[in-house]
Amino acid sequence: MDDYIAKLPAWQQEICQRVRDLAHAADPEVVETIKRTVQPYFVLQGNVCALLAAKDHVTVFLYDGGIVPDPDGIVTGGHENKTGRMIAYHEGEPINAPALTRYFQHIIANNRAGGWRKIKAARER
Fold first, then answer.
1. Please, where are the H alpha helices in 27-115?
2. Which residue stretches of the chain are H helix?
3. What is the rounded distance in angstroms from the CA atom of residue 69 to the CA atom of residue 38?
4. Are 110 and 117 in contact (CB under 8 A)?
5. Which terminal CB of the chain, N or C, has fewer other CB atoms within 10 Å?
6. pTM across the whole model
7. In this protein, which residues make up the domain named YdhG-like (predicted)?
């Protein structure tokens, strides 16, 4: 993951490092891995999030099955997606650290409870 981050412009490095720190702060058992050859993922009994730097933003993909509450309104896209949502951070935009940490903790709790698919199916019964 260090190689992925090191190749980015300074402002994207800062965002990626902040998200990285928050993922680990959400739970010390979170593990970093690379999937799809180059994409950084954070996992704990399933995917928690992934990073993808684009030209004018960094996307944090949230593997929540669309079931994690977002009372702080940090999710910026994928509201109708059945497997996950995303947050796009642009240069100079603040990261709501408490809200993102809570979001990660909720995803991790869902993963430990069997994953969002199992939880979603139970809710639909």
1. 97-112
2. 2-6, 10-26, 97-112, 116-124
3. 29
4. no
5. C
6. 0.95
7. 12-107
Can you give the pLDDT at residue 19? 98
Please calculate the CA angle 77-61-23 and round it to the nearest 5 degrees.
Answer: 125
Which residue in this structure is represented by tokens 């928050």? Answer: 22
Structure tokens at 19: 């998200």
Buried b (16+ CB within 10 A) or exposed e, 76-93: bebeeeeebbbbebeeee
* pLDDT band, residue 123 (cuts 50/70/90): confident
How far apart, in Å, are the Cα atoms of 94 and each of 35, 64, 70, 118? 27, 22, 17, 34
